[in-house]
Amino acid sequence: MDLQDAHGWLVDLLNEISVQFQKVPGSAIFLRYVKSSYQNDPVRSAVELFLFLFAVKYLLAPKYSTSKKSYVKLTDEEIDELVDEWVPEPLVAPQTAFEEAENEKRPVIVGPTGPKSKLANGRLVTNVASYNFYNLAGNESLKEKAIQTLRTYGVGPCGPPGFYGTQDVHQKTEADISAHLGTTACIVYAQAFSTISSVIPAFSKRGDIIVADKAVNFAIRKGMQISRSSIRWYEHNDMMDLQNVLASVVKEQAKKPLTRRFIITEGLFENVGDMVDLVKVVELRHRYKFRLILDETWSFGVLGRTGAGVTEHQGVSVKEVDMLVGSLAGPLCAGGGFCAGSSEIVEHQRLSASAYTFSAALPAMLATTASEVLAMLETNGEMLALVRENIKTMWAQLDPRSEWVHCTSAMENPIMILVLKAEVVASRKLSISEQEQLLQEMVDEALANGVMMTRLKSMPRGIHVTAKEVGWELQPGLKVCLTVGLTRKEVERTGTVIRHAITKVMKAKR
């Protein structure tokens, strides 16, 4: 067959295909569509032809089995051997000898907690180890109100707030907190710890940036860990370092996609006791365009004219803080926590905060107690004045008069944290564990003389976690909690006992 015959055969074949195709129903419409759509667009024709051929090839491709075993099959003996060799890693590190000894000597209170507490061994001691700042644990009017609420609402709602758990007392408590702080809205959680650890991941996600103080408490650290955000630390309460970190973040992110950025700090620091410079933090957050999350777990109910917290104490408008988180369990002697802010901030948490969505609502009697204590703080300024007088009295007995320890807490903080002076640690070359041992001996000595205090403690490191990975090491210290339930003379005597216990232990260890 020559070239001319081949050409003729091909033309006849195409004509036959055309005739047969035209017999197909709808072929005329298809041909008209192709002629009108592709006459001036050959690229489109080529792309769609490629896709058509790919689809045909995919449909005609041979099937393959997903059940093919591509792994090594082990015998029963080999499986048993591997199981026997496997040793699970412990969930927590084993107790040290120091921790075991401490647990054996731990004092147990029998009956209600108060300024004077009875121990299981029958002794009556002065209690400066409880957060009973306003002696509300024994307040009869609060007890009666709690009993009435218990009889009306029962022990607990037995359901999450969004699923039949919200009661009118919860809404009243949220309104009371919001009015006390001057915010637009407020949301109440069932547990103080889980409040901040749920608020953070509700707003900050993977890829977002958090700039946090190195000394923030464990609950904040867990919230940041859950959020999976990028964390940048700044030196504790160092505003110059904070400014440098913020400037560095802004510079690094200048050419990257816009992300949410947060500053997280505390009002009164749980691990150190000192106070944040909120005025400077607010100035920097505006300059570098960061959102601010402020944890007032230990400052709400303590600082300010009416106990509204560090914002009231330093004269900063609550509108300058995006999320103001606090506790109802510490100074207020109730339970639960809260987050106050704008309506948008609050309503977002009702569906996005895990501790609010998946936990049973706060028991009604605790919500009522919180509202009652807030009313007392607003109308009875003497409560705040008395506890501040006792703080000054204790300071006069301890910080300037002891050659061994100094107080790292703010003067307004009823929780006094006493740490060994730097020169004492340096001269004796004391390690962290050695400092803890000395401080525990001071606690035991004070208890032997009728004063019950405690040590500053934090959650232990995870297994195999080094100090470098932690980034900030908690300095061991004593914790002394003041209360209005003690008179001035009782506070002076308590301070003297503590000071003498410190001196006795330190001189015995020369």
List the helices and strands and how they pair.
Blueprint: H1 3-22, H2 27-38, H3 42-60, H4 76-85, H5 97-104, E1 109-110, E2 116-119, E3 124-127, H6 140-153, H7 161-165, H8 168-181, E4 185-189, H9 192-203, E5 209-213, H10 218-227, E6 230-234, H11 239-252, E7 261-266, H12 278-288, E8 291-296, H13 310-314, E9 323-327, E10 337-341, H14 343-352, H15 354-358, H16 364-379, H17 381-398, E11 405-407, E12 415-420, H18 422-428, H19 432-448, E13 451-452, E14 454-455, H20 467-470, E15 478-481, H21 488-508
Parallel strand pairs: 3-13, 5-6, 5-7, 7-8, 8-9
Antiparallel strand pairs: 1-2, 2-3, 4-10, 9-10, 11-12, 12-15, 14-15
Cross-sheet strand order for the largest sheet: 4-10-9-8-7-5-6
> How many extended strands?
15
Largest sheet: 7 strands, mixed
* Termini Cα gap: 116 Å
Pairing-aware structural class of the strands and helices? alpha/beta
> Average pLDDT value?
89
